[in-house]
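quick one, two chains, predict together pls
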Amino acid sequence: MDEAIGQRPPRNNTFSDLQRALSPTGNTGDAIFRLFLLGAASLVLLIVVAMILALAYESRLSISQFGLRFLSGTNWDPVKGDFGALAFVYGTVVSSLIALLIAVPLSLGIAIFLVEQAPRQLARPLAFVVELLAAIPSVVYGLWGIFVLAPFLRVHVEPPLQRWFGWLPLFTGSITGIGLLTGGIILAIMVTPIISAVVRDVLTAVPGSQREAALALGATKWETTRVVLVNGAPGIAGAVILGLGRAIGETMAVTMVIGNRAQISASLFEPSYTIASVLANEFTEASQDLYLSSLVELGLILFFVTFVVNAIARILVWNVTRKTSGVGGAA
Amino acid sequence: MPTFWKSPRITALILLASFALVPLACSPGGGPSSGNGVTKLQGAGATFPNPLYQKWVSEYGKLHPGVQIDYQSIGSGGGIKQIQEQTVDFGASDAPMKDEELKAAPGELLHIPTVLGAVVVTYNVASIAQPLHFSPEVVADIFLGKIKKWDDAKIKQDNPGVSLPAADITTVHRSEASGTTFVFTDYLSKVSPEWKEKVGTDKSPKWPGGQGGKGNEGVTGQIKNQPNTIGYVELAYAVQNKMPAALIKNANGKFVEPSIDAVTAAAASASTQTPDDLRVSITNSPGENAYPISSYTYVLAYKDQKHADKGKALVEFLWWGIHDGEQFAKELQYAPLPAEIVKRAEAKINSITSGGKPLR
């Protein structure tokens, strides 16, 4: 494509270097369009940088007071003015991880069924319902979590888990229905529609010729689906990262079922706390400067947690797609 | 600056902008006092008295169409901040302002108590017909995690003849910063030296254990849906949701059921120790019928009002509130002020001036 444009003869030979840089075709409209796009794209970068700077500036008091101890500390005591973020980071990362562990296979299943298997009369309404789920406000998920999901888990899910897998530290402790596991599950339910809706679009975009080619070579339905998945892998990765972003930043639904206690416990049944939840819960009434500054620093940390988790996810996906596309190439 | 003014384009812009602002300044609410006889008052603060204040605003508006009052329930902390920055005409807070907060304000702020509220200890224990009784130290020990089982000897001692299960106690507290938590921890700090030392009084302290629930509805949900839990909610909320309410042993050694009259009684018996500025904690106050986990909620106003007409409207509104407005308190599950405190609040309202002149 690029070469084709480069080979097209310019309309006139008098435009300047600047114009040439802005628009290789020498069209003023194109130049304006390009400038606009450049502005829009750089605005995103500018907002990110401005946000990091503002967060860092507002948290300078707690950064200078606690230094790196803020990252390793697990104590959060507004009365005594001692603050540490580790328990919140742990709660955020683990609850999002649980969410993805459940949501990714589920979403892939939904999307593959909708695109590859379901009859059209069923696929349309089903896809609509999935997208409807994505539009439910998170506070509604939270209330449903307290009144339906948590009691259900307490009675029907957590006791068998403890009976069979109680030898794992993950499933020890008292069974209450409120805690890290419930937080992760509610997040999974919330991100599933997002991931599956995007994956569905990605799979629909895979050319039909790929499927026809695989089938023509004698591939089964399962093998054909694998070819389609490999083709859509980068898009699927994007969908997962989008879901992860929502899981990490989710506030209301999580805070209503996670138990809101800043602690690190191996057990998934124990209460935990996420960064986004503690910010929402304590920001409005934080009056001392150090307290407020520590909350802002938590926001800064949330930024970096999102950044690091996204980077790890991308590297993982990149490795997987490279391997599978190698296999796909050989097939 | 001088070069700035020399630029004709900027001067023109400023002129244009100021013309554009003229109609704004004339419209109601734009200026300090406004045209066509309507005075606007802006208030912000505590969420706890919000239902009552909204009722007051609507009832007062019917009687005085010339005064338009807007109250925003943004939380006590926000109310204090806004009145300090003078962005509102009156603030509202459940906890009285601290000395350093008062110093940070540009003028002398008055605390005018409006009504009282109470915090109820509620629980979910199956197969108990009569309400449970708790001594103060038992409540503190449960929330400190020292009493772990419902059939603990200390709980049994307060509840003879009640069959309590041999189950673990799960405590539930408010996860977000809240005035309800402040009153509850203030009470526990008074009755338990260990609580005072380990946890202290705060809107969101570091809890020794248990779960956090978001808001009164979150705490209620977690208690209703989990057996063997205990937590605390506002009296009004407990009554409306028909939740079991524990009787708490007061400073006189009597177990008192949380009720509106018991809360007013606590304020009345604490009135002799109430300081001149009316900033007082009435938790664990003496008195035969006093419910011990009670507290005032306050309106915050500057003693010296900048604008006489606004100040006049505010003074008249507050005066109406602590007299005629108190009749709406009970139906909304707030405890009205005792007569002695109404007298002292009257004196506070009467001391509000503008430019040295009394407004009432």
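The CA atoms of residues 89 and 195 of chain B lie 38 Å apart.
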